[in-house]
Amino acid sequence: MKKYSRLILKRQDPRSKRYFASERKYLLKKLDKKLIFDIIHFGSTVVPKLKGKGMIDIFLIVKSKKQFPKMLNQILSRTDYIRPKFGGSKERIFHKRKRRINGKRVMFHLHVSWRSGKEWKNDILFTKYILRHPEAAKRYEELKYIWARRFNYDRKKYHDSKSRFVNPILRKAREEMGV
Questions:
Q1: Could you tell me which residue, 69 or 179, shows the higher pLDDT?
Q2: Structural domains in the chain plus CATH codes
């Protein structure tokens, strides 16, 4: 079993939206805009007062699957994002960047996918749902504490547990939002 750093859940920084806006601007300046469909802030830092790991999750959506490899090369060659040794899937590649903003260390996770991909759409749908349903957000936060204690250092088990909560929410969200 691969060991990772300890999972620590933190209170959300109220400046998260500003951090995202600043990072979006950075990405648009560094990357070929003709390849980009959208850059979206998602996850716990979007939901007011929801505790999380404290990183800003960003989805960079490439216009097509064909342009995906070109964008990945640009990210690695034109920015200071790095590719971690863990995470990702066929449809989503992670990169991370640490940056100081007004003396505060901010961690960004850049998720890269393409327009017709499903993973980014699910993540955005989940974020929208917990924004609309504070009781679901509260339950999600409670469970994240339980999972962090139970599976500390084992991120795969932590993420597998999250999936068991997220998947039924996605079904509800699709039904509710007619997606």
A1: 69
A2: 16-177 (3.30.460.10)
